[in-house]
UniProtKB/TrEMBL annotation:
It comes from Hydrogenoanaerobacterium saccharovorans. Residues 14-116 form the Fluoroacetyl-CoA-specific thioesterase-like domain. It comes from the Bacteria. Pfam families: FlK. The lineage of its organism: Bacteria, Bacillati, Bacillota, Clostridia, Eubacteriales. This is Thioesterase family protein. SUPFAM superfamilies: Thioesterase/thiol ester dehydrase-isomerase.
Length: 129
């Protein structure tokens, strides 16, 4: 049973490769917003994975986040995802990201539980059209 309140944390180091300049989301060498959101989404996916039956996975349905503080190359960033609501196959999360100086972003994320094989087949079927 999926537990509301369960959380998971992921960490990464800011490098030249995950800056806004490197990924094309800006022209400054600080942690990129898309990379922050990917870290948050990854934390949510791993949080939910521990509760899923074999053959099931989850996919992102929606993500909304602020990015309120820049993080320079060399600092560590951690993302925390906490389950806030479960409605059938829909699981909602509160997501937050911090660097060594404090909060850098927060928001909400929705994940949908799917059958892995069926989901992948639906994606592959697009190639047949």
């Amino acid at each position: 049973m999926i537990q509301v309140g369960a959380s998971f944390e992921l960490k990464t180091k800011v490098t030249e490769q995950n800056t806004a300049l490197a990924v094309g989301s800006g022209d400054v060498p600080v942690f990129a917003t898309p990379m922050m959101m990917a870290l948050m989404e990854g934390a949510a996916a791993q949080c939910l994975a521990q509760f899923l039956e074999e053959g099931k996975t989850s996919v992102g349905g929606n993500i909304s986040s602020s990015h309120v503080s820049a993080t320079p190359v060399g600092m560590e960033v951690r993302a925390i995802a906490t389950i806030t609501e479960v409605d059938g196959k829909k699981v909602k999360f509160a997501i937050e990201a911090y660097d060594e100086a404090g909060l850098i972003g927060k928001g909400d994320h929705l994940r949908i539980i799917v059958t892995r094989d069926r989901f992948l087949q639906g994606a592959a079927d697009k190639l047949q059209k």
